[in-house]
Design brief:
Blueprint (H helix, E strand, L loop, with lengths): L2 E8 L4 H7 L5 E4 L12 E5 L3 H9 L4 E10 L2 E8 L5 H8 L3 E7 L2 E8 L2 H13 L4 E7 L1 H7 L1 H7 L1
Antiparallel strand pairs: 1-7, 1-8, 2-3, 3-5, 4-5, 6-7
Organism: Haloarcula salinisoli
Pfam families: BAT
InterPro entries: BAT_GAF/HTH-assoc
């Protein structure tokens, strides 16, 4: 039985959060995507008054091989980040444990809505985070019945 969870994690606890904290962005949202290759390359939506400055700051990170602007509309940009190394342990841990990111965003503190195939996947992710020293807060676990009652889209908009 699948399980949906809400977790929070400080930006300082994971590479993507640290890199994005370098930019003076108003809002960042992780795009839902399933990686087709072995490397996890996040897609992000950024809302900012100064997207060129955001791009410059992110590109100066030694962890970023490439920041690719895919779409820019009305001070919002969609970007793909290609890592220079495999240092992104939180997102890699999500991928390794079969989690699907339903919604995610934040600045200093990130909120993630995640789906695991079963409670075992959630347990493996929790073990992965403890082993790698990533402090997460498991804020809520939804049963399939709760998800159906509330509606998946409503859960995503609550973050």
């Amino acid at each position: 039985m699948s399980v949906v969870t809400e977790i929070t994690v400080a930006a300082s606890e994971f590479l993507l959060g640290r890199v994005l904290a370098r930019g003076s962005v108003a809002d960042i949202e992780l795009e839902r995507a399933v990686p087709a290759s072995g490397q996890v390359m996040p897609y992000i939506w950024v809302s900012d008054r100064d997207l060129p400055e955001f791009e410059r700051q992110v590109r100066t990170s030694p962890h970023v091989a490439r920041l690719i602007a895919l779409d820019v509309v009305n001070n919002q940009g969609m970007y793909r980040i290609e890592w220079a190394d495999d240092g992104e342990s939180l997102v890699y841990g999500l991928s390794e444990t079969g989690a699907t990111i339903l919604a995610a965003g934040g600045d200093d503190i990130w909120e993630l809505l995640l789906r695991f195939d079963d409670y075992g996947g959630l347990a493996r992710f929790h073990t992965y985070c403890r082993r790698d020293g990533i402090e997460i807060s498991l804020d809520r676990v939804y049963s399939p019945e709760e998800i159906e009652q509330v509606g998946g889209e409503d859960l995503r908009t609550q973050l």
